[in-house]
Amino acid sequence: MPKRTDAYTVPFEVPELSFDEAVALAADTGRISGDAGPLLETVVDMLDELKRPDEHYDCIQVAGTNGKTSTTRFTAAILRGEGLRAALYTSPQLVRYPERMEIDGRVVDDAAFAHGVSAAVEAGRRVNEARAAAGERAYTITPFDLLTVAALVVFAEAQIDVAVLEVGMGGRWDATSATDPVAVAITGIGLDHMRILGDTLEAIAGEKAAVIKPGRAVVLGEGTHEPSVQRVMDERCAACGVDPLVVAHEVLAYPQHVGDDVAFAVATSRASYELRIPKPAYQPQNAACAIFLAEAYLGRPLDADALQASLAACPTPGRFDVVRTDPLVLIDACHNPQSCENFVSALDEIDPDVSRRPMLLIAALSDKDVDGIVRTLVPAFPRIAVCATASDRALTPDELARRVEEELAREGRPASDVAAVYATVADALDAASRAGQPLVAAGTITLAGEVAALLRG
């Protein structure tokens, strides 16, 4: 470990797409898809066609509902600090598609991204051509299928040591599960993607627990400790003959201002660490999960000084992220009740006085627990503005405003606490800028991304 082998090259000629063409396909794979439905076999067959680029390095997989992006980022940063050539695959992007793929802490360039997508497109075309010749229905290649295969190709060609892969949805049928990870982590379970994964914690936990398999190191984050979830995890670990590592941490000092350090301690079976990071109060549990995961992969304690430096410098875009200072705009990608609770708790640690907080700009996706998000965020802010993101899953502004007003009524607050309803994120930001109005934008990852794109360019 690591298992670097000979250099990888794509085993067939690849018609190279331009960057714009690659982005267009990443957003809509309809032109290369069939009607056999989204299947894990689609990605397996595409990787087989490519002669398994993912077998040229180790893979680590991070599943969960909350904290998995930060845990994935922290894990890659820790391993990089230990001297490994580490890659990161995460989703969704905040602004640009290449952000989903990083090598040694840097987003891959546009040319590498386009080449990876080109190779994945050609692999999909060849697989579906062979299926047609055999009288079988063509696979439906989803955007996530395409980007996962693209990333695995890019990483192999870069001769990395290890790739840390964030599960997109669930775990059982996720495209990242077409690889054979040596270690996996499950960060926490909440009600998310309920139309697909199920509408109970147990059902969702079962889909995510499927990444646990015999022979893999398994780390269970603090968000898996809810009794019904823990029961599912314990049963899966027992069935696979796995003894999981269970994460715990202790916060030693909370931040007093945005950007202040939070101090925390982590004790594993191998070592104890005391650390400080300039992150909100909810991040130590994700850093702790990453520490357990990195140790499990390496099979040894971590270098304490390198660990401190790696965690402190690791960016977590869209997480308690100040994207403008005058007037203030802070974004957080919380997108379900649990992550929203963590966000609000971080605000409370800095200043519990709700009346002194900026206005909340809220948007939500229709397939999330919208009522739970509203119940968590609305009481934490004195005024609320409502908008819709550009996602085709976005809840309409009028419907979201109705639910916000219902929550205000439940609290005995006037409907006038809804300051405005906007059709788009851009409309909301324009109005806030003209008025010099500070904002906190939260409720969905797509809102954080659109705000970051508009203000950072």
Features:
single chain, 457 residues, alpha/beta, eight-stranded mixed sheet, 17 strands, globular
The largest pleated sheet is described as:
8 strands, mixed
* Radius of gyration based on Cα positions: 22 Å
- Could you name the ranges where pLDDT drops below 50 across 5 or more consecutive residues? 193-198
Structure class: alpha/beta
Terminal CA distance reads: 40 Å
Number of strands: 17
How many individual helices?
A: 15
Strand content: 15-25%
Coarse shape = globular
Summarize the structure.
With 457 residues, this protein is of the alpha/beta class.
What would you note in describing this structure?
The chain is an alpha/beta fold. It is built from 15 helices and 17 strands. The strands form 3 sheets. An 8-stranded mixed sheet has the order 4-3-2-5-1-6-7-8, sandwiched between helices. Helix 7 runs parallel beside helix 8. The longest helix is centred in the first third of the chain and has 24 residues. About 1% of the residues have low confidence.
